[in-house]
């Protein structure tokens, strides 16, 4: 969930 | 998406467009570090590995393709374009950028969120981006006169990550206080590296004089 959170940024 | 992150992405995009315009319009890459540009290509390649496997949004995919395409074409221009490559300050752009990449990779092997290829390479790209500007800053100190486009390019590049820091503060307070140390600390280091450039850039802008970095 932490990694998923990061995913939407460039 | 929040306004700080959108402003950050647009500032980042603008910096790359300004650099491409400088190279295409003046057919010159004087004062630009090829090492930094190559590091940025590595940053984007290792960060956008899941470009085709994970669809986030049209915006996200488009921007990733634009960043990859423009950064690769800048390196192509500086390496292979018959006119532009003559203007590259080869003898001044001597920073050993592998000395930057290797410790970043080792650090990513040690400190990451989860030990998978995608995650470690993503973390490597975050660490590498923080220090990728160093060859460019060293080159600016060596090259006596910095042209306006190059100065604006570096300024916008530094400003984009500063806006991302604001975005992370905003997201911390609006998205159940999720802590994200790796990008936060890397982004802080990245922005701090621009500190003295920002000082001289704003000073030259205020006094309306040529941008000059002390040797």
TrEMBL record, chain B:
Where would you find the membrane-spanning parts of this chain?
A: 56-77, 98-115, 121-140, 152-170, 182-202
Q: How does it sit in the membrane?
A: Multi-pass membrane protein
Question: What GO molecular function annotations does the UniProt record carry, in alphabetical order?
Answer: ER retention sequence binding
Alphabetized, the UniProt keywords read: Endoplasmic reticulum, ER-Golgi transport, Membrane, Protein transport, Receptor, Transmembrane, Transmembrane helix, Transport
Principal location = endoplasmic reticulum
Biological processes, Gene Ontology terms: protein retention in ER lumen; protein transport; vesicle-mediated transport
Q: Does the keyword field hold Endoplasmic reticulum?
A: yes
Task: Give the record's family classification.
Answer: Belongs to the ERD2 family.
> What name appears for this protein in its UniProt entry?
ER lumen protein-retaining receptor
Protein's organism: Nelumbo nucifera
Top-level taxonomy: Eukaryota, Viridiplantae, Streptophyta, Embryophyta, Tracheophyta
Report the gene name. LOC104587250
């Amino acid at each position: 969930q932490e990694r998923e959170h990061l995913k939407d940024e460039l | 998406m929040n306004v700080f992150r959108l402003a950050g992405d647009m500032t980042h995009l603008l910096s790359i467009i300004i650099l491409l315009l400088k190279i295409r319009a003046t057919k010159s890459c004087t004062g630009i570090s090829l090492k930094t540009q190559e590091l940025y290509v590595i940053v984007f390649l290792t960060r956008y590995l899941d470009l085709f496997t994970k669809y986030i949004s049209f915006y996200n995919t488009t921007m990733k393709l634009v960043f990859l395409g423009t950064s690769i074409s800048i390196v192509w221009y500086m390496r292979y374009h018959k006119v532009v490559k003559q203007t590259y300050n080869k003898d001044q752009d001597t920073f050993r950028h592998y000395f930057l990449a290797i410790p970043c990779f080792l650090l990513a092997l040690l400190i990451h969120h989860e030990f998978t290829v995608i995650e470690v390479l993503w973390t490597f790209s975050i660490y590498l981006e923080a220090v990728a500007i160093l060859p460019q800053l060293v080159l600016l100190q060596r090259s006596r006169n910095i042209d306006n486009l190059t100065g604006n390019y570096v300024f916008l590049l530094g400003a984009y990550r500063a806006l991302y820091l604001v975005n992370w503060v905003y997201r911390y307070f609006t998205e159940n206080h999720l802590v994200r140390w790796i990008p936060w600390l890397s982004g802080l280091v990245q922005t701090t590296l621009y500190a003295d450039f920002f000082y001289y850039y704003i000073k030259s802008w205020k006094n309306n004089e040529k941008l000059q970095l002390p040797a």
